[in-house]
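Bug #77: duplicate submission created two jobs. Keeping one. Sequence:
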Amino acid sequence: MSTNLDVALVVELRAAGVANAYAAGDPEYQPALLGFNRDISHTPEIVAVPHTVAEVVTTVTFANRHNLPVRVLGKGHGAQAPITDGIAIATDQLAFVSVDAETRTARVGAGATWTDVLSAAAPRGLAALCGSAPHVGVVGYLLGGGIGPVGRTFGFAADHVRSISVVTADGGLVRADAEFNQDLFWALRGGKGGFGVVVEVEIDLFPLATIYGGALFYAGEDTPAVLRTFAEWSRDLPDEMTTSVAMLRLPPLPELPEPLRGRFVCAVRIGYVGAAEDAEALMTPIREVARPLIDGVGEMPYAEIGRVHADPVDPMRVMEGGILLDEFDTAAADALLTASGPTVEVPLAAVEVRRLGGALSRMPEPPNAVGGRDAAYSLHVVGAPVPELLHSLIPQVIGGLFAGMEPWATGGTQVNFFGRANMPGDKVTSWSPEVAARLLEVRRKHDPAGRFPYPLHGEAI
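Kept job's structure:
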């Protein structure tokens, strides 16, 4: 429930030019705060929904005047804790995409999703480096690095950012690129949060109309053979092949294909940039493991790249976490099977291992703050969306699974895969100590008063 002070603040912010500012008593308040993870409920004093960059500037200036923290509500999966004070800025109305086919670039507003970008780029034969879930927002994904279904070929999405426009703590709109505000440009590409409100990005596009991609779905009883084969097969793949394997406990939903409905299945995801016949030759060891329930791999329009992982698009309750691995050999596969394989009763929806390396391991020019380049694989675990287990059994199970994989772990995580099932203080391990220290310096320089809180050591958000 809003207080008289909250209402007065909203009235003042509206009078300053931000018409869509709301307190808890307003009917627009809760809808503006809703995100993908419905297990998290935000209750800030104010939620602002700016329609222009000028309104973002006004909101930050207002926050300075009243000494209020500011946090941004993105359009992705990344919310990890409820916002309970200050101003939350929802970026929904800052959504635009402008494609320049000649320079192969796109200007993207903070409220746009990757689906918006794909739709604008595809008619020009161009592709954007989205993630496995194109329905999420562009900006939050880029700020954390961004590992997509063709990541081994092109690298992190943040490696291909031309410029970033951000409203900093003093209320100024600045451009960060290779020539201007170079420290901020370095930090924003991979440093995730705590630097300001990003309102626009300019990104590279690629002349890529199609890829060879999709997923093979195997029955639960074939999972041990698939996982062990994946461990050997994925080790020496060329950069043109990006792949992952996932153990999935699927619900009995009518929208799922009948062979998968309500079953434990093992999915091998493929994204190959190159000739289909080359991809098919590379796929032979995986295809020969067993007869798949569904073979959905083949040439496909790049604009449909979301089909590779087929991530859920509807909001749900989520508890998840991730770690990075130095290696994923057959012994690691066996450890994962022991912890979460088809014969184990655990409340987990997905356990995924992604092959990293390739272009993901190479620093771009100019360098950026993306962490985890030295890892060979990532492990990401999503709990079953069972409300009564989300804060008890599920984090315990995920924590136990991570502990069992410790012999192969780097000791770090990747910030976009860090979740509430990770230990809160482990977020800082998304970067090397040197990079984490430099990120702190940049935050202190551009936000000395901590207007944009970004906890790294388990502090309250």
